[in-house]
Write a structure and sequence with these properties.
- This protein is globular.
- With about 210 residues, the chain is of the alpha+beta class.
- The strands form three sheets. Strands 1-12-11-10-9 form a five-stranded antiparallel sheet, covered by helices on one side. A five-stranded antiparallel sheet has the order 2-8-7-4-3. The chain has a two-stranded antiparallel ribbon with strand order 5-6.
- It has a single domain, classed as Lipocalin (Beta Barrel), CATH 2.40.128.
- The longest helix has 16 residues.
- A hairpin with a 5-residue loop joins strand 3 and strand 4.
- The protein contains five helices and twelve strands.
Length: about 210
């Protein structure tokens, strides 16, 4: 029975990788990888999520100096989200945290806003593809395959509460599909979600 379940799950994942992602597919991936994210919201129900009609194009601005990539990786490697082949990564934390490492300890000079960077190491491509200000924040990244990834996080409501939001990044199309929550009562709890990646480091001057 256990083997049958594993085979079915692998079949489902392969199917997800080869098609346009629907909300039901996102549920499988997110529940498997980061169930704590969904648990960080009250009244969370996958039936309340819908895909909006429009897409958001990658910004494709602020190219990074690839000569500094090795130094960057030495500092931020524990919190970078790599694809399976390790040639690509998404970085959602470095801009805001602005880390320094002294005597094997991390220190942060926190900045306002959040930049999302994509890097393809073999092609020496490293640039910003999105930027969030106060109204939106991505908390984690999940790679689906070498072409698609998820950004999960929240956007602010009119009452300054946090409502869940999901972006599906497509590297071939250079764009994001946007998944929003329609339940106004689905709001983030006081204990915010914290990615396992961020737990890989201890920042001395953060609570």
């Amino acid at each position: 029975m256990k083997n049958i379940i594993i085979v079915f799950f692998l079949f489902l994942i392969n199917s997800i990788q080869s098609q346009n992602l629907q909300v039901k597919d996102l549920r499988v991936v997110i529940d498997k990888n980061i169930p704590d994210w969904t648990n960080s919201f009250e009244n969370f129900d996958w039936n309340d999520f819908i895909k909006v009609d429009s897409i958001a194009d990658f910004e494709k601005v602020e190219k990074q100096n690839v000569k500094k990539l090795e130094k960057f990786q030495q500092l931020y490697d524990p919190i970078i989200s790599y694809s399976e082949n390790k040639n690509k990564f998404i970085d959602i934390y470095s801009y805001q945290l602005n880390l320094e490492k002294k005597n094997e300890k991390y220190y942060s000079n926190i900045d306002v806003g959040q930049a999302i960077y994509f890097c393809e190491i073999n092609k020496k491509l490293w640039q910003r593809i999105a930027y969030n200000e106060y109204s939106k924040y991505f908390e984690d990244v999940i790679w689906i395959n070498e072409n698609k990834f998820l950004l999960v996080g929240y956007e602010k409501t009119e009452n300054d509460k946090n409502s869940p939001i999901i972006y599906v990044g497509n590297l071939k199309n250079q764009s994001f599909e946007i998944i929003i929550n329609t339940n106004k009562k689905c709001l983030q709890k006081e204990n915010f979600y914290k990615s396992k990646k961020l737990k890989n480091i201890k920042i001395e001057n953060q609570e």
